[in-house]
Amino acid sequence: MMFLRKQLPIILAFLTGILLWLQAYVPAKPASDALTSFTQSWAVILSAAALLLGILSAVQHHMTKIKLHRKGHAYSYITLAAFALTFIAGFFWRPFPGFAEKNIAEGSFFMWIFDNIFTPLAATMFSLLAFFIASAAFRAFRARSFEATALLIAGCIVMLGRVPIGELIPLPGGHDLSDVASWIMNVPNSAAQRAIMFGVILSQVAISIRIIFGIERTYMGGSD
Amino acid sequence: MRSLDLTNTRFCLTAILLLLTAAPALAPLPALAQQASSIEIADHPNDDGSAVILTFQLAGDELLELMPQIQVEGQWHDTETAPVLLSSLDRKSGHPEIFGWGVVDGDEKLHPDDLYMVISKYISFDAEGQQQINPISPALGELPVRLVVDPAGRAQQFEAGTVQARQQWFNTNTVFRLLLAVVFSIIIMYFILAARKNPNIFIRRIAGLEAVDEAIGRATEMGKPVLHINGLDSLATLSTVAAVNILGRIAGKVATYESDLLVPCFDPVVMTVSQEVVKNAYLEAGRPDNYREDNIYFLTDQQFSYTASVCGIMLREKPAANFLLGYFYAESLLLAETGNTTGAIQIAGTDAQAQLPFFITTCDYTLIGEELYAASAYLSREPMLLGSLRGQDVAKAFVMVMIFIGTILTTFGSELLTRLWTAL
Predict the structure, then answer these.
(1) What distance in Å separates the CA atoms of residue A60 and residue B206, rounded to the nearest whole number?
(2) Cβ neighbours of residue B186 under 8 Å, at least 6 residues apart?
(3) Do residue B374 and residue A203 have CB atoms under 8 angstroms apart?
(4) What is the pLDDT of residues B27-61, one digit of tens each?
(5) What's the gap in Å between the CA of B68 and the closest CA on chain A?
(6) Do A129 and B334 touch (CB under 8 A)?
(7) Closest-CA residue in chain B for A140?
(8) How confident is the model at residue A223 (pLDDT cuts 50, 70, 90)?
(9) Which is nearest to A81 in space by CA: A72, A70, A89, A93?
(10) pLDDT of B356-393, one tens digit each?
């Protein structure tokens, strides 16, 4: 039992990690195709099984909320009803008259739900971002410190430089504000982004080594 | 009899019209292609045997059409569904991944261009005349290849010889990458092993991680839960693995403080792993009874449905501490700004560069890029994990030295290091 819980996952992680790492250097089909299709098949099977667990978890969570009358449990009724309706529309053959025969084809009730309820709701959430950006920008641009002031100035230059009016604001040497905006984006901004990227990539190498060699085991649910 | 009046407007207009109508017929034929020279066929290097490469020198009209053909089982087949324009072909010098570095094309004005075409398929027709596209493979054996110039017109044919498509077992373009991976791995492994002998490793203070205890302590004092988000990617993303690792450490502290931990998940696999990780953390903290599986649940795998749901949780449950760790997309600001309005201590961490400014603006602490990956080691203070951080820093110093040397070499006209570090 201990072997199944502790050693086997580490052995599997080691073998899979090493094989997939080596596969990056082997273009030959027998190796790359076999390994890729093998790992992809496993990923698909695991994802499908996990999705079932996920659905059960979500339903159970909302049922518990309703049962215990937790705060906002009314939304759980709506969630479960919407889930049931979409489930019926997606799984059963022509559940509602007046829609396409195929259950998830264009013109079906399932697609009607997707196009007329889900998509507008998702778009609404996304569009809220504009207001959130405004409030976050207001907070970020308050010049309370040297860094915030530098951010404010750089932000104003980039914003002005990226719209047509920026090209009409002349600067010495035949340049205009859009040139300064481009310089900020291409030089200091790119330099900072590359520095972050280098750090991230080396960290990913380190965490991969820790996982492959079983030094980092927290993600397996086990301790060190 | 009326004489020819050249000043007559109607006469002039008619003459111009006639000339314009006749113009296409009088136009010269497209310039004849120069004789294709240096025509060669070779196996595509570093591939799985699914392509061969035809190289040649040819100059001619931009609209000149070309069609490489291969002979399979005694019959010649086109290798493209339609002839290819000469002007659309790539030159050899622009593709070091195939021809190596240092290939110099002929002077465009003085010599024919050094061109190439990758042949990865051939066209055949079945009994019903339906077009079939067949892949090139090693099983086809030796393939005679020729280049047909202007197939619809003069159809000049240039024999290129024969080729056998072969698959390679090692991609020689990745030698330097492999070498770097091995060197970095050795450096990191060395410091991991060294940390076993000398566990006292200095690690710089990371404010965001120092605040974890404070945030959980505050949640306990206020009697409110701690909210942890593992980002919006699957476990195939390393930042999600890092976030789950941190979840284990946070769960251990939450269990010790006897507070509540909420983990709404975007991915069902992440949910399953998170449940296991949190359960073990509670077990190790000696509080297995306090573990509630119902607090780690799957919400949805739709981006904005998930966002709406988590924002709802933040507003209803009013968690005292929000941990937003992992990979995030456009929803980052919606989540962090909502958390900000509830007055929670917010600690975010991501390697998604585009989302970092939003987190920095709205969260109390932000783990930038590599700090997210260092968090698990930092929180556990496990010597071997800290050793890997030291190794990582040494590798980073190595990269910095390379950048410095590369800058100097490039300034003096040498592209040696630049070429080595360019991924092909």
Answers:
(1) 39
(2) none
(3) yes
(4) 444 445 557 788 999 999 999 999 999 999 887 78
(5) 25
(6) yes
(7) B361
(8) low
(9) A89
(10) 999 998 999 999 999 999 998 898 888 888 999 999 99
Strands B345-350 and B365-368: parallel
Q: B377 to chain A: nearest residue by CA?
A: A216
E strand intervals along chain A: 170-171, 175-176
Please give the Cα distance from B119 to A141 (Å, whole number): 56
Taking an 8 Å cut-off on Cβ atoms, the answer to whether B373 and A200 are in contact is: yes
| CA atoms A19, A22, A24, A26: torsion sign | negative
Range with the lowest mean pLDDT among A150-154, B136-140, B315-319? Answer: A150-154
Which residue in the set B248, B372, B395 is minimally distant from A218, CB to CB?
Answer: B248
Residue of A nearest to B381 (CA): A224
Q: List, as one string, the DSSP characters of B354-414.
A: GGHHHHHHHSSEEEETHHHHHHHHHHH--HHHHHHHHHHHHHHHHHHHHHHHHHHHHHTT-
- Min Cα distance A108 → chain B (Å) is 21
What is the reported pLDDT for B1?
A: 46
| Alpha carbons B93 and B100: distance in angstroms, whole number | 8
Mean pLDDT of chain A: 87
Which of A37, A218, A220 is the best mutation test for B, with the most CBs of B within 10 A? A218
Q: Is the pLDDT of residue B203 over 70?
A: yes
Amino acid at B137: S
Q: What is the pLDDT of residue B38?
A: 85
The dihedrals phi and psi of A89, each to the nearest 5 degrees, come to -65, -35
Q: How confident is the model at residue A6 (pLDDT cuts 50, 70, 90)?
A: confident
User: Is A121 an interface residue toward B (CB < 8 Å)?
Assistant: yes
Inter-chain residue contact A32 with B242, CB threshold 8 Å: no
Q: Do B334 and A118 touch (CB under 8 A)?
A: no
Contacts B330 to A, Cβ<8 Å: 126, 129
Which residues, 6 or more positions from B57, have their beta carbon under 8 angstroms from its beta carbon? Answer: B36, B37, B38, B39, B106, B111, B112, B113, B114, B115
Establish if A189 touches chain B: CB-CB under 8 angstroms: no
Tell me if A29 and B388 make a contact (CB, 8 A cut-off): no
Sign, CA torsion B238/B244/B246/B249: negative
| B189, closest residue in chain A (CA to CA) | A209
Q: How far is residue A126's CA from residue B296's CA, in Å, rounded to a whole number?
A: 26
User: Do B49 and A71 count as a contact with CB atoms less than 8 A apart?
Assistant: no
pLDDT, one tens digit per residue, over B219-237 is: 999 999 999 999 999 998 9
Per-residue pLDDT averaged across B109-119, rounded?
Answer: 77
**CB pairs < 8 Å spanning A and B:** 205
What ipTM was reported for this prediction? Answer: 0.89
* pLDDT higher than 90, residue B152: no
Q: Which of A214, A194, A213 is closest to A202 using CA atoms?
A: A194
Strands B84-85 and B75-78, bridge-based pairing: unpaired
Report the chain B residue with the minimal C-alpha distance to residue A209. B185
Q: In this predicted structure, what is the pLDDT of residue B39? A: 92
Instruction: Tell me which chain A residues have a C-beta less than 8 angstroms from the C-beta of B391.
Output: 206
How do strand B142-149 and strand B131-135 relate by DSSP bridges? unpaired
| Radius of gyration for chain B, computed over Cα atoms and rounded to the nearest angstrom | 34
Burial class (CB in 10 A: 0-12, 13-18, 19+), B188: buried
Angle value at C-alpha B293, between B288 and B295, nearest 5 degrees: 115
Residue located via tokens 């300034």: B411
